[in-house]
Request: fold
Amino acid sequence: METRRRRQKVRYYTHTHTTGTHTQTSAVLGHERLGIMDPESGDQPLIGTSGDVAVAVNGEIYNHLDIRKRFSKYGFKTGSDCEVLLPMYSHYGQKRLVEMVSQLDGQFAFVLSDAKTGFYMAARDPIGIASLYYGFGQDGEMWFSSELKALKEQCVDFHQFPPGHVYDSVSKKFVPYFTPKWYVSKEVPTGPLVYAKIREVLTRAVEKRLMSDVPWGVLLSGGLDSSLVASIASRILYKRKQQSKSLFHPQMHSFSIGLVGSPDLAAARKVADYLQTVHHEMTFTVQDGLDAVRDVIYHLETCV
Reply:
């Protein structure tokens, strides 16, 4: 990818994309990976220590370090945050899947298959940040995919996997594991607005997402939302740098995309200069935008 900061050209490369497949007697798992955690050895599908259980995951599990501590006796093979699903499945088994998945803090969609029993399961994060679809082939086989386009040639019907649910091949049911009170309660909060609490929660939300073995990046529009997030992230990274002089990537990259001469680019540049990020600008014309509409809809699978 070639980007530019003002008039200075910058080339910024990452080599973290891999393709992997794993075949079992009753299942085939495939994965296209953009490596964020442990790009050197965390390729997927991930295989359990027994060789029977395999999992393909799209997403990030923010509390993976805490889970690793709980299963410290497990022979982890990688530094991938997603590998914790393997010892968790071994511990909770087929009958306690709701308990297992409800302990995950993150954005994720995954399919796990057990070659020894022929059992498989799938789950999606509480609010559906990670996409997941399922469908059935002509012979009744079940398919899962993070993109609908992967199913349209293989399945006679397909559906969106419901957020906050887990599915297993024994019960053949979608069971909710995320059931907060505000899902069903009609009660309207009446407590006072506490700005300090909002700041605390927002900071904590940004911090737990700063989990990466590759350089940090933020999409910066110059507006309030992205500027706040970039500011919080920069402050956290600065503190981490002070605490650890060997921090691999202490400086954050920021990216801005817009029409040539747009006020958004100018605003983003001011924020980037203030935060001292490694800033990259990408510009396009109105015609470029019109030409890309069909491709954007195809890849995003939405026209909204």
